Amino acid sequence: MRHILKNSFKCFATVFTVAIIFISCKDDYERIGEEAVRPVFPQGVAQNFTLTYTEAVKELNTQDSSNSRIIAVLTSPITEDYDNQSFKFRTFPEGLKVDFFDEKNQKSVITADYGIVYSQTNLIDLQGNVVIESHDGKKLETPQLFYDRKNNWIFTEEAFTYTNPEDGTVMDGEGMDFNKDFSFFKAHKTYGLMTIKEKE
Question: Distance of CA 98 to CAs 63, 72, 127, 145, Å?
C-alpha cells in the first residue's frame, strides 16, 4: 500500500511540474510589420462573376407587377466576398467592367484593373487604368476613381485626362467630381488643351 501511494505521489508530482513549466512558458516574441497583421480570408470566392442591378419602372404595391429596368451589369473574372468581416467588403482582384444604362437604355462603360466595394458605405473604389466611356463618346482616364452609389456621384483626387469629342477638347488635371452621365462635372485643377465655343 505504501508502495502504491509513493508511486501515485511521484506521478502527481511529475504531472504538476510539467504543468507548471508549460504555464510559465509564454511567447515573449514581439511581432512587427507583416508578421503582426492577422491574415484575412474571404468567406466565398466566385469565378466568371456577373451581377445585374435592376430597378422597377414604377413603384410597386404588394399586389402589383411591373417590368424592371436594368441599370448596371458588373462582370469580373473573379470576386472575393469578405462579408465575414466587421467592416464588410468585396474585392475584384483581376479587374472588373461595369455597363451602366440610362433611362433611354444608352450604355456607358467603366473598366478598372482592381476594384473593391464597401457594402456598408455604398462606396466603390476602382484602381489601375480606370476608364469611363460614356454613350456619347466622352472619356475619362485616371489611376483611381471612387463611386458613391447612394448619391450617384463619382470623384477622384488623382491626375486625369478627359476627352470630349463633341467640342474637340482634351483636358488634363488633378481632382474631379461629377455625376454618372457627365452632365455636371467640376475639375479641381486643370491644364492642357481646351477649346471654348463662343456664343453666337
Answer: 33, 7, 14, 13
**In the block, which residue shows the cell 488633378?**
174
pLDDT of residue 186: 83
Q: Which residue has the higher pLDDT, 112 or 183?
A: 112
Provide the residue type at 65 as one letter: S
Pairing of strands 107-112, 114-118: unpaired
CA separation for the pair 134, 182 (Å, rounded): 8
Grid cell 463611386 — which residue?
147
Q: How far apart are CA 197 and CA 71, in angstroms?
A: 33
Q: What is the amino acid identity at position 87?
A: F
Helices (H), the chain: 2-24
What pLDDT, in 10s, does the model give residues 15-62?
445 455 555 555 555 656 555 566 777 888 999 999 888 887 666 565
Give the pLDDT score at 156. 92
Please, are residues 138 and 182 in contact by the beta-carbon 8 Å criterion?
yes
Listed residue (133, 32, 41) closest to 83, CA to CA: 41
> Which residue reads 508578421 in cell numbers?
35
